[in-house]
Description:
Layout: E1 3-13, E2 18-29, E3 34-38, H1 45-52, E4 60-65, E5 68-69, H2 75-85, E6 86-90, H3 101-111, H4 115-128, H5 144-157, E7 162-166, H6 174-191, E8 194-198, H7 202-205, E9 210-215, E10 218-224
Parallel strand pairs: 3-8, 3-9, 6-7, 7-8
Antiparallel strand pairs: 1-2, 1-4, 4-5, 9-10
Amino acid sequence: MILEVKEVSKIYQSVNRKLTVLENINFSVEQGETLAIVGASGSGKTTLLGLSAGLDQVSSGQIYLAGNELGNKTENQKASIRNKHIGFIFQNFQLLPTLTALENVMLPLELQGKASMAEEKAKELLERVGLGDRMKHYPGQLSGGEQQRVSLARAFSNTPEILFADEPTGNLDDETSEVVEKLLFDLNTEHNTTLVIVTHDMELAEKTNRIIRLKGGKIISDERLHVQTENV
Length: 232
């Protein structure tokens, strides 16, 4: 199992009230699996993604990521685990505006101490996503679809074991979404990466092997599908 979530709850406490965002969440994800987490706004799906990636702390329960129990790790230790095992794709791309497309993709490898191979690997990935002629452009010079393709290349640059994608096509039009989705699943298959997607787009969700539905901070269904990502 690359990810195990055990009895996890997330509660925000203010002076006047207690807000339970997630309650008693249990699931595990095998290496190579593709999983979509779906639910209405406020269902807790983005919070669950953040907890699973070690970006936030659970109120109770345990999360194991690549064999590491996140609850007993320092922030620096969790950052090291993320850099070693995880790739991220965000709805708003999260590219560094002062770095070129090439430099953005090189960054995870440089942070891993692999600067000598960073440029070659980044160029290879940018070619793979169809941006070989845009490597020297800055994010502000790229369309939304191009920026998301850069973020795809960056996410796969450190050969992650698991990729977390938060509404990866949420800011894209339908045609561009289809291009990004195909690249996402193709790259995922090529690299044998585990893919966890948070989305409100059921068409995207149904291209995964499994769908977990959240409502009111609880899992209401966990459905395994018979979909092969290579057929997307």
